[in-house]
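Box S1 | Example of a co-folding query
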Amino acid sequence: MMKNLLQPRELLRALAPGEPVSGEALADGIGVTRAAVWKHVAALRKRGLPVDARTGLGYSLPWPTQLLDADAVAARLEDGAGSLEVHWELDSTSSELARRQDGLPDLAVVLAESQSAGRGRRGRAWLSPPGLNLYLSCLKRFERGFAGLSGLSLAVGVCVVRALEDAGVAGAHLKWPNDVMTDSGKLAGILVELGGEYQGPCTAIVGVGVNVRLPRTVREAIGQPAVDLAELAGGAPPDRNVLAACLVARLRRGLAMFEEGGFAAFADDFARLDWLHGKSLRLDGARGAFEGVGAGVDARGALRVRTADGEVRVDSAEVTVRAT
Ligand code: BTN
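Box S1 (continued) | Returned holo structure for biotin
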């Protein structure tokens, strides 16, 4: 990697413990001028990282963080590291897997400290400042085409909530099809992108973004209620490398299970975590809007909604669902 790309990472590494570091010490440590330190601090701030500067004390982050480290993640994976990469910055971890999929093994995982063009569902951007949250994608190949993949994104949601539980975070639920929710807002997002043959070998690129710490500016820019792990855990979120390992382990195991048995193996867990169940809902889609009450999902993962005219099943994620 070019040196000037490494400098912001080294700056963040020096600030990660959360203690103030003088501009001079940072400049010496990274091997740049103090003006360059200032420039990198300004760039980190622009990306949403609230780097504080105090006369006589230096620069600091308001809380400690951990830089992502492939060895630290791999060390916690019982089945070995497999193909696991950590990048400082990518356009999108999912785009990276899409570009390189032919050269990567099944269940390859890519993580990035930051994304310059992180993608959410329905063409939305996924804001991805460095050093705060988690951005991860996993490649999964399937042999039997798209038809067998109904319910995949719900199954991934179950894996993500299980991983959060493994990391000590309780209270997350799933809003169909796959938003990870708490009563205070959205905690994580999942984007499953399919490619390949409709009835033959195909690929799912599973992207997961988890809010570990959302600074105020990022939270305001998101445009919908969002919550982070720091808030849920009373100020001390799980170590990012531990959380990454929990996610990688649950996703790899879960995707292999899905290949064997489809959504059936996840249906009970989804029902336990179903955030829409029993709630009054408003659904908007291509065929207009209607209201009803969430009544779980069917064996294919379609949302069941009880309306005044009977039960409606919704299997298109292109419908927006709001609890009213
Ligand atoms: C959503 O809209 O809820 C889905 C968000 C998915 C974001 C993740 S972050 C890692 C991966 N890379 C991306 O560009 N998007 C996904």
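Residues 92-94, 115, 118-121, 124, 126, 135-137, 179, 189-191, 207-209 surround biotin (CB under 6 Å). The CA atoms of residues 77 and 249 lie 6 Å apart.
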